[in-house]
Amino acid sequence: MNSKNIHRVIGLLLVLPIIAWAFTGVFFFIKPGYQAAYDQLAVKTYPLDKSFTIPASKEWQEVRLLKTILGYHLLVKTNKGLEHLDPISFKAKQIPINTELNALFNDSFLSNPERYGHIVSNDGFKVMTNKGIEVTLNWEQLTLRQKGDDTKRINTLYKIHYLQWTPFKSINQYMGIFGLTLLMTLTFFGIKIYISGRQKSSSSN
Hints:
Layout: H1 3-13, H2 15-30, H3 34-37, E1 62-68, E2 71-78, E3 81-85, H4 98-109, H5 113-116, E4 119-123, E5 126-129, E6 134-138, E7 143-147, H6 149-161, H7 169-204
Antiparallel strand pairs: 1-2, 2-3, 4-5, 5-6, 6-7
Helix pairs in contact: 1-7, 2-6
């Protein structure tokens, strides 16, 4: 098989990946809807209006005192991980019941009510809003993570762009390497064909 035929075959094999790269590349350049899809939702906090005596501990690497609609929270970082303590008893802060958790979520949603709306269902630390947004609470860190249909669509486009077309990580890695190898090979034979054409043109002159 000569260079032109190999170039043609590789070009056909790369039709779908190149179309996917081009389409998703334009989307990532324009970035429509990114701000809402990846909104950094945070637990709403209030000014501290009470003082606490925090004992010194060799195990505590970092300490944060926060106040939310549920009261005061002492977040401690240790060698073993993160701890969410009560700043009075210094024991693990009791996990609130559903009603209290809903109040914490809804209070945080006030920062962007058009996106989050209000809770329609809950499953422990995970809730769904009437806007179709899923929000998860990390109780140890007192942080929120949100995702909607727009977030899922953009994440899917990322997978398409990076040739993550299967549910299997190892296969996706091979697909990425294979696609890049084909692209480099296509470029090589394209240059080779161009040089051959130039040489033939010079010889005929």
